[in-house]
Write a structure and sequence with these properties.
Radius of gyration: 30 Å
CATH superfamily of one domain: SUI1-like domain
Strand order of the largest sheet: 3-4-2-1-5
Mean pLDDT: 83
Structural class: alpha+beta
CATH architecture of one domain: 2-Layer Sandwich
Number of strands: 5
């Protein structure tokens, strides 16, 4: 390693003849008008109407021996099913996909899923399988 130049190290924090570039701005801070705080955003728009019923079913066949939980009979459009699938995956911390008119979630979620569905506004949740 080379020797450090002590004369440069001594002047490392000095700003030279110009001084600090922010010193003038700091002096102007008191003269600036205060900015009003923007109003808080209003509540989120009401969620879309939830389906009246859902059937939660546990399955292992046809999935390579893996456990999956199906949510059927939601009677939602394809885009709404995708949105519901995304929200359920985030809420439950699992993987999932939309298969036809059913949402397929990875793992055995028969105990946790009905509570989440009722919180989302589904009035009747049937657990089978």
């Amino acid at each position: 390693m080379g020797k450090t130049d002590k004369s440069k190290a001594k002047d490392a924090h000095s700003w030279g003849p110009l001084g600090s570039p922010f010193a003038a701005l700091d002096a102007l801070r008191d003269k600036l008008p205060s900015v009003p705080v923007p109003p808080a955003p209003t509540a989120a728009p009401p969620p879309a109407k939830a389906p009246a019923r859902a059937v939660v079913r546990y399955e292992r066949k046809g999935h390579g021996g893996k456990q999956v939980t199906l949510v059927e009979k939601l009677e939602l459009s394809a885009t709404d099913l995708e949105d519901w699938c995304k929200e359920l995956k985030q809420t439950l911390g699992c993987g999932g996909t939309v298969d036809g008119d059913a949402i397929v979630l990875q793992g055995d979620l028969r105990t946790r899923l009905p509570k989440v569905l009722t919180e989302k506004g589904v009035s009747k949740v049937t657990v089978s399988g």
